[in-house]
Amino acid sequence: MNVYGQRLASLVATLTDCLCELLATEGGGQTCWCGYYPGGQPAWENCGECSSGSCGMAYVTVERVFVSESLPLEAQIRNRTCATPLAVTLRVGALRCVPVAESDGSLPDEEAMLEAGLGIMADMGAIHKAIACCIDGGYVGGYVPLGPRGGCAGG
After folding, report:
1. CA distance 75 to 101
2. 123: closest CA among 36, 67, 55?
3. N or C: which end of the chain has fewer CB within 10 A?
4. At CA 149, angle to CA 144 and CA 155, rounded to 5?
5. In the chain, where the domains are located
6. 3-class SS shares of the chain: helix, strand, coil, % to 5
7. What per-residue confidence (pLDDT) applies to 95?
8. pLDDT of residue 1
9. Residue 49 DSSP code
10. Band of the pLDDT at 72, cuts 50, 70, 90?
């Protein structure tokens, strides 16, 4: 593995460990799965209940790698060299189970929906803290709500 790969692997490992810990202690609680997810957006089928009574998943993915001389801006360098600095954008997220309509079409319980929403908001804070506090030089982008889809929501 080259030096860029080693640095990225170390960054991702540190961020992932921190994210998983903060979600469990300050976020909406332990997830069923929390780790690095290769490729783009994780499959939502992995968000669900597990044997521990937890629900949901959390992830770190590499969104894009680009040349940058001043983070977070992409540089327009025509003559790249081996020393041209690279930057990476990571996607960090958490998905949690949310109540869904009953088979008869009745809406989910309001209190259960509020509780799920408060857990997702706690996850938002844990995600921010993981990026801002656990990696050196991390820039926090925006939080984008996701779902609900298939009984899961998050961001």
Report:
1. 48
2. 55
3. N
4. 20
5. 3-154
6. 35, 25, 45
7. 96
8. 65
9. B
10. low
